[in-house]
Amino acid sequence: MNNPFKRMTKREWALWFVSIAIVVMSNIMAGRVDALTLTATCIGVTSLIFAAQGNVWAPILMTIFCIQYAIISYRFRYWGEMFTYLFMSLPMSVWSIVTWLKNARNSSDGTVEIRKITRKGAGVLVLCNVAVTIAFYILLKKLNTPNLIFSTISVVTSFFAASLTMLRSSYYALGYASNDIVLIILWILASIKDPGYIPVVVNFLIFFLNDMYGFICWKKRETAQC
């Protein structure tokens, strides 16, 4: 369990500082600074930077983010987001900590070894996702969840993202990037009713950029690993 900040490149430091600065500014410009939203976003951004490194601190911080984001979603009655992050993403993040620790490629820097998903594994993943999505859709519909369709799509992308992270696939970042797009739409809809949620939209825009950076980094490491 090394200090992940010591391994950050100049590019990653710049990306981290710019991301945090934009997040803080968006909260200030919104006219009201929500401590929970701001803290959760800073932890989320930091987690994504560590994830790009393949460092086990990424799922550790993501576990904390899942709890915080579930609370934020509860405030707006986005039951889909709350249940998804609390009962699916959170357990999978904990599981990811275990799998990443067990499959560290280099004990000195804590970098996780990348795993390629087989066709059989991909098929099982899709079937599990279908089952989970149907179950969540029925639950969310009974709870009269706002923006049900987008909330259901968020379940799909969240499951793929969390599963691929746990399985150490380089495509985990594309899963999260897809989820970011859905969440941007969801929180834009929420912001129409309450402009105070505009910073959350900005937060997920920053997450999207960081996730794409993570995907590029993992594909480079995957090529070097082969």
From TrEMBL:
Keywords: Cell membrane, Membrane, Transmembrane, Transmembrane helix, Transport. It holds the Pfam family NMN_transporter. The keyword RNA-binding does not apply. The chain crosses the membrane at residues 12-29, 35-52, 57-76, 82-101, 122-140, 146-164, 171-190, 196-218. It is a multi-pass membrane protein. The keyword Transferase does not apply. Its main location: membrane. Coiled coil: none annotated. It comes from the Bacteria. InterPro entries: NMN_transpt_PnuC (IPR006419). It is found in: Cell membrane. Belongs to the nicotinamide ribonucleoside (NR) uptake permease (TC 4.B.1) family. PANTHER family: NICOTINAMIDE RIBOSIDE TRANSPORTER PNUC. This is Nicotinamide mononucleotide transporter. The lineage of its organism: Bacteria, Bacillati, Bacillota, Clostridia, Lachnospirales.
